[in-house]
Amino acid sequence: MMTSDRYLKIVRASAWYDLLVTWPFATPWTFVWLYGNLTTLAQTLGLPGTVHPLDATHILFANLLGSVVLVWSLARLLNPSLRLGRLDGMARVLFALWQVNAFLAGANAIVLGFTAFELIFAVLQFWPKVGRKLETTSPN
């Protein structure tokens, strides 16, 4: 059984991870920079799969994802709770499924690096039974 204090620290840690990893997705300029670096890394490591050239639609969807994840991260940092942790765990399972699906459909294996962290935080937030009952709504 996990203590509520430890659980909330995990919720905050997952939010900080998301902020650090996702902020480059939030603007067209930072995403193009990140995508170029990930492409170079994948080629340098000789990872299997394809890295497609970007177009305006790819950039748009990346920016939408980045923007939503940044706001979601702030929500978990400012008001961490059991409910937000469980929802984040569920979202991470979905993200991991779609990342594995993309890899199996030919996307570069670089996505699996993200998948590992999605699964780790999913297990840490979704799996444990938490001790002392946590607030599931904002106290305000």
Range of strand content: under 5%
Order of helices and strands: HHHHH
- Class from secondary-structure proportions: mainly alpha
Largest sheet: none
Helical segment count: 5
Key traits:
140 residues; 71% helix; 5 helices; mainly alpha
Kindly describe this structure:
The chain has 140 residues and is mainly α. The chain has five helices and no strands. The protein has helices spanning 4-22, 28-45, 56-78, 82-104, 111-126. The protein is globular, with a radius of gyration of 17 Å. It starts with a helix and ends in a 14-residue tail after the last helix.
Could you give a quick summary of the protein structure above?
The chain is mainly alpha-helical and 140 residues long. The protein has helices spanning 4-22, 28-45, 56-78, 82-104, 111-126.
Chain-wise SSE layout:
Layout: H1 4-22, H2 28-45, H3 56-78, H4 82-104, H5 111-126
Helix pairs in contact: 1-3, 1-4, 4-5
